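Course assignment 3, question 2. Fill in each field.
Student: A.L.
Task: Predict the tertiary structure for the chain below.
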Amino acid sequence: MTDASYSRPAPASLQMQTSLDRAIQCQGIGLHSGKPALVHLVPAGPDTGTRFQRLDVAASPAFRLTYDCIISSPLATVASSPLTPGLTVATMEHLMAALHACEVDNLLIQLDGPELPILDGGSRTFLSLIKAAGRSRLPVPRRTIEVLRPVHAKGKNDAYASLLPGRPEELELSLTIDFPAPAIGKQSFQMVLSQHSFEHDIAPCRTFVNHQDITMLQAQGLALGGSLENALVIQHDRILNPDGLRFDNECVRHKMLDAIGDLYCAGFRLSGRFEGHKTGHALNNQLLHTLFASPENWRFSDGSPHRLPSSG
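Answer field:
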């Protein structure tokens, strides 16, 4: 990806955009569909962003992932294509989190169905794929979205999410959860996002579910691909997985993983502080809508105009 037509001069202090060095793929099971799911990660040129393409839908064009193509779904992050009515891509948050942490700016993600594979229930396998593919540096400066003013989103049962100004080129996150099951209870975690912190503290953490909810979810056509291989199953004060927890606070760390993925649906890396309490996919996306509702809330790090790319 070093075509001379992509070249623009840039100060040495600026970070440059990246993509993968080579294409890579993997196959697994969709968490909710329970069906085989194949995903291809394909290098893309500068200013492409993250684009999704459904290979199972004839002549379906790739569309750019933006915060405003995310549709309401409480149990996964789901994007709807603005180019193909009714076409969706689901359960992307674990891959998006890994791309965010690894600073992959441009990528084409091709799927053979409506859902990404759940794999290990976290981001560890996606992270391994990205590292195996390698990362290439592109000759165009990266633009980061800097948070200028505090913005907030509120949900039910005291849930909230906030973005606040922070240190340049840094995303700091803090998160708390509070579940009635004693095996989870109140947990908190905070971090500064980097590939190292993500790989060691966040990527292994699995999605989780209350055992008593599984029958209801499956009756709704959800969680059909869930198992003890890809999810933590909680039964009141017990963890039903034979290997137990990977961290004492694995559940809040997984919620942090989800938030990192959801925030990358902004289309660019964020610079600021994220604070969340009982937050989930819908509230994280509501927060992005609030951020971009006014040009006084944010700016691009390179001073370019307040004009976000369309998802077309």
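Instructor remarks: The chain has a mean pLDDT of 93. The chain has six helices and 20 strands.
Grade: pending
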